[in-house]
Structure formats: structure tokens, C-alpha cells
UniProtKB/TrEMBL annotation:
Cited InterPro entries: Class-I_Pyr_Nuc-Dis_Oxidored, FAD/NAD-bd_sf, FAD/NAD-binding_dom, FAD/NAD-linked_Rdtase_dimer_sf, Pyr_nuc-diS_OxRdtase, Pyr_nucl-diS_OxRdtase_dimer
Origin superkingdom: Bacteria
Cofactor: FAD
Domain FAD/NAD(P)-binding residue range list: 7-321
Record key words, sorted: FAD, Flavoprotein, NAD
Source organism per UniProt: Streptomyces antimicrobicus
Entry's family note: Belongs to the class-I pyridine nucleotide-disulfide oxidoreductase family.
Pfam families referenced in this protein's UniProt entry, alphabetically: Pyr_redox_2, Pyr_redox_dim
Stated name of the protein: NAD(P)/FAD-dependent oxidoreductase
Key word Thylakoid present: no
Domain Pyridine nucleotide-disulphide oxidoreductase dimerisation: 362-468
Gene3D superfamilies assigned: 3.30.390.30, FAD/NAD(P)-binding domain
Length: 477
């Protein structure tokens, strides 16, 4: 028997983006149901941001300590692997979602566990784990927040190898003796940093000419240099042609283009993401299953006035904080439209119902050693956009606060200035502790703060933030 229930809003997916939709629509007084087939809290909480940072923090703290006079000898030994993994397990709630359930209860949202599929306009059919069936009807909006999964290329032999993806890399219970990583972007370099620090011998194989290809070139160069110094092998410009595993649990061999082979005990494929939209009923509303969902700036799916998509599925910015931001924007838009205030939607460039930051001020931190942090446009991106820009560079290690932070501090900073408007359109910082510089840059880019006004934002001495003064001095000449 199918149980039919009506709500104002139905959300497919209870990850961070879905949870933020729930929060905003419930705060607006709308009745909201959320459907989740796995754990409430989503990929970020259990297999991505949270566990990866729990694994990385000890590695980065030890690296920082080793660069401090008087402390380096005290942290000369290996990491306590069992303690690191236990700390990670704590932060994932041992892969249980009890805490997230308490939050859903506190806001008054209804949770349906099971697989949800669209069944025409404004309807979601849910198949529960015990065979129960529900038909949820949304009076105002259905929101797709199903996220993405790791993309595994169709290499010969890949099925028999049973490779790690980001999920296995962040939840593994043992340290592989030799870890092969195929890829050169964020997951690849972060997991190379973490597992190398935990004792694995890492070999990273990137098809492109450099690591972190979406950031300024110096970011990938500094990260690659540090990984090599830590003992990892980093090879760029190499592609995998095939993979094979010896038996069920034996070593893995990657065959490179040209015939060379590389062997390891586990293989992590970190080669991109694909949307989790292949089996959610998109075909019942005239959309192509398995694809990214095109949306407008309020995250409403093109051609469907009742359907929204937030987070990874819309491919605007595959970052947890951007998905949550989109959900805040979409939640406000859904509430305004549901209450008959659609005419009051603020659709100006930085309006309350427009996800402008997705294109103008996306911040990202890569938690490697050194950290790489960027917001807005790189120099190459700005030039491709047709802007008349100037890149201003400075050695982070020459800032007094950086020298006090760590002996031999190595890092670099760049700001990209729109010369016609005299505002920042992008900034990148690479160095130990550089992540904490990023929000100031994000405010400057999103707020379009004039360079002349930034000159009056005095950085405290002696901090690494003094880099702002050095960049402005360089710009002003």
C-alpha cells in the first residue's frame, strides 16, 4: 500500500545543501519533507570534507611544528595512526547519523529513508528500506540535492581492481604500504598528503602538465615540490591506459601510456565527479537522466517553475560551502514564491535571491602542506573573460609574520586587479596557514572593495596578513 502525503516542499537528498533548504523553508513556515537513501549529512559529513580534514590536520600540525625552532625535535617521530583514525571516526560519528536526526527533529522536518524518484510534476515516490511506499506531493517546490559521486574512468581491468574512490580514501581502516593515486586535483593532492604522512609510499600520476590545474600555476608547483620533499613520487603528463590486480588482494599495476608500469598495494582514482541523477525520475518531467541540471541564478531548473537543484548536481561550483550558499538563496526564493511575494524577489547582481558568488567569488582551500587557498578569478580566467587586469605577486615568506610562523617559510600570494574598476577579482595564497587569509580576500572580491579603500585596512603586526600591505604596496609602486 502506498501512503500519500502532501508538503509545501520536498527535498531529495539530506546532505549539507539539502539540510540548508530544509532550514530555510522551515524557518519561513513551510512544511518540508526530506528523502535520503544513505546517511543524513551526506557525502561531506562521512566521506569527504570532514573525514579528509580529520586525516590531514595531524599531518599539517606536525609539518608546522617541525618548522618551529625549539619544537622540531619534540615531534620527530611518526604519527600515531590508530589515534588519527580514531579521531576521524569520531568526527564522522562512526558513520552514524544520530546527531543529524536530532537536528531534523528540532526544526520539524519529516525524514523519509529510502530511494526517492520523481513521478511527474511535483511528485516524489519513495521506496523505503522495508518495502514501504510513499508518494509525496509538493505544493510549491521539489528540490534535487542528491550530490555527486566519484567518476571512475572506463579503463581496461578497472572492475577487477576494485579501486579506492574518495570514499574509501577517507574511510580506510589501514595504511596501504604503497598507494597509487591517479589524478592531479584536490582529492588527489589532499589524499597524497594525508596517506604519505601516515606512512604510505605514495605515487601520484597526473595526466595534465601540473597539479591543481584550476588554480594559479604556482599553487600546483609548490604543492608538488612539498609532496616530493615528503617522500611521494609526483609525476605529471602521464596517463593510465589499463590497470590490473594480482589476485583478489594482491598488488595493483597501472599501465601507463607508452607501456611503462607502476605498482602499488591500493589504487585511488581521483579523476573527477559525476552527478547522482541517473535514477531519480528525471525522464518523467522531460529531463535527461544522469546529467547535470541547468539552473537559473535562484537555482530553479530551466523550464520547470517548481523544480530546483542545489549543490553539486547543478555543476555551478562543486564545493560544500557553495552548495549551502545556493540552498540559502534557493530557500529564500522558494519561500518568497510560495507566499505570493515573487514580485519582491531581489534579482539584482548581489540580491538576496541570486547566487552571484557562484561565478564571482567562489572560495576554495586545498588542505595540503602548504595550503593553497583561492577566491574569484585566476589571472588566466580573468583574461579569458576579457577583463583588463594586472596580477600582483609577492613572496609570502618575506612577510615578518610568516617568518615567525615557521623557519624557512615558503609561499606565494597573488591578487588579480580589474584595472578598469580598481577592484580585486581574484586572490590566491599558498603557504602554511594560508587558509586563514582567504576570507578577507573573499570579502574584498564579493564586496568589490576599491583598492584605495583596502589601503586603509591595516593588517595587524606581526601576522601573515601583512601580505595584504605588501601586495598593495607593490600595486601602488
Amino acid at each position: 500500500m502506498t501512503r500519500a502525503v502532501e508538503y509545501d516542499v520536498v527535498v531529495l537528498g539530506a546532505g549539507p545543501a539539502g539540510e540548508n533548504i530544509v532550514d530555510r523553508t522551515r524557518a519561513a513556515g513551510l512544511s518540508t519533507a526530506v528523502v535520503e537513501s544513505e546517511l543524513v549529512g551526506g557525502e561531506c559529513s562521512y566521506w569527504a570534507c570532514i573525514p579528509s580534514k580529520a586525516l590531514l590536520r595531524p599531518a599539517l600540525a606536525r609539518a608546522d611544528a617541525r618548522r618551529v625552532p625549539g619544537l622540531a625535535r619534540a615531534v620527530s617521530g611518526p604519527l600515531d595512526t590508530a589515534a588519527v583514525l580514531a579521531h576521524r571516526d569520531y568526527w564522522t560519528g562512526d558513520w552514524k547519523d544520530d546527531g543529524q536526526l536530532d537536528w531534523l527533529d528540532s526544526v520539524g522536518a519529516d525524514l523519509y529513508r529510502g530511494h526517492g524518484r520523481l513521478r511527474g510534476a511535483r511528485q516524489v515516490a519513495v521506496a523505503g528500506p522495508e518495502g514501504e511506499q510513499h508518494l509525496l506531493t509538493a505544493r510549491h517546490a521539489v528540490v534535487v540535492a542528491t550530490g555527486s559521486r566519484a567518476l571512475i574512468p572506463d579503463l581496461p581491468g578497472i572492475a577487477g581492481v576494485r579501486p579506492w574512490t574518495s570514499r574509501e580514501a577517507t574511510s580506510a581502516r589501514h595504511v596501504p604500504g604503497r598507494l597509487l593515486i591517479v589524478g592531479g586535483s584536490v582529492v588527489a593532492v589532499e589524499m597524497a598528503t594525508a596517506w604519505q604522512a601516515l606512512g604510505s609510499r605514495v605515487t601520484l600520476l597526473a595526466r595534465g602538465p601540473r597539479l591543481l590545474p584550476r588554480m594559479e600555476p604556482f599553487a600546483g608547483e609548490l604543492v608538488a615540490e612539498a609532496l616530493r620533499e615528503a617522500g611521494a613520487q609526483v609525476r605529471t603528463g602521464v596517463g593510465a591506459e589499463a590497470v590490473v590486480r594480482d589476485g583478489h588482494t594482491g598488488p595493483v599495476t597501472v599501465v601507463l601510456e607508452g607501456g611503462e608500469t607502476v605498482e602499488g598495494d591500493e589504487l585511488l582514482m581521483a579523476t573527477g565527479r559525476t552527478p547522482r541523477t541517473e535514477d531519480i525520475g528525471l525522464e518523467t518531467v522531460g529531463l535527461e537522466p544522469g546529467g547535470w541540471l541547468a539552473v537559473d541564478d535562484s537555482c530553479r531548473v530551466t523550464g520547470h517553475d517548481w523544480l530546483y537543484a542545489v549543490g553539486d548536481v547543478n555543476h555551478r561550483a562543486l564545493l560544500t560551502h557553495q552548495g549551502k550558499y545556493q540552498a540559502r538563496i534557493a530557500g529564500a526564493a522558494i519561500a518568497a514564491r510560495a507566499t505570493g511575494e515573487a514580485s519582491a524577489l531581489d534579482t539584482t547582481r548581489w540580491g538576496a535571491h541570486v547566487a552571484t558568488a557562484d561565478t564571482a567569488a567562489v572560495p576554495q582551500v586545498v588542505f595540503t602542506d602548504p595550503e593553497a587557498a583561492a577566491v574569484g578569478l585566476s589571472l588566466a580566467d580573468a583574461e579569458r573573460a576579457g577583463l583588463r587586469v594586472r596580477a600582483v605577486d609577492h613572496d609570502l615568506g618575506k612577510v615578518s609574520g610568516a617568518g615567525l610562523y615557521a623557519d624557512g617559510y615558503r609561499g606565494r600570494a597573488r591578487m588579480v586587479v580589474d584595472l578598469d574598476r580598481e577592484v580585486l577579482v581574484g586572490a590566491t595564497f599558498v603557504g602554511p596557514g594560508a587558509a586563514e587569509l582567504l576570507h578577507a580576500a573573499t570579502i574584498a572580491v564579493a564586496g568589490e572593495v576599491p583598492i584605495d579603500r583596502l589601503w586603509h585596512a591595516v593588517p595587524a603586526f606581526p601576522t601573515i596578513s601583512e601580505i595584504w600591505l605588501r601586495l598593495l604596496e607593490t600595486y601602488r609602486g
